[in-house]
Fold:
Amino acid sequence: AGFLHQKGDTYSRFGKLNEALESYKEEEEIGEKVNDRFIQARASLSLAGTYNALGKDIEAIETYERSFHQWDEGNPVERSKCRNEIGFICWKINRNNKAIENYFEAWNIAQTTSDSNENFYLRFQGARALKGLGNVYERLCKHQDALKNYEQAKNIFEEIAEEIETRSELAWTLLGIGSIVIYPVVNSESAVINLEEARDIFREIDECT
Structure:
């Protein structure tokens, strides 16, 4: 199963997504045969990500949902990630209420886990959930709610920046804050500062790739 997972990851890195799908499917089947929930969960999480990369939204949502239930409560990072990914896809296809529901669950998992303050990857997922909620609320013209969630996400991304890579997520969050300038929520000076900071981060990312 480990070999199949590495094989799928390699195919994925080289853009051979259909081949990656087959490797992850085989891995999940092995997990089912030996009744190993970890293998199943790991395979289905990667399988869902591959469906997502292929633009197969419904298959991705269904597979993330399956993966969520395969991970036990001792794996909050993965469970929160599943909810965040479903939230993002639902936001992308205009299922706003479903997006909010999944983002809230991702946030709650990150918040209620005992070691959430020490677990930087879990805090990262929590911040992703807040950023996602900001995106949905902005679309729904709930600008104060959007701004509140964006600001919370920004603070967390900045707090954990020295531990894990958060630049891309931080840049998108700053972009969200800055974009609200067209509404009577924040002042122009604040919006410009956030937009310029987002621009600088995106440029830095481009230079490193």
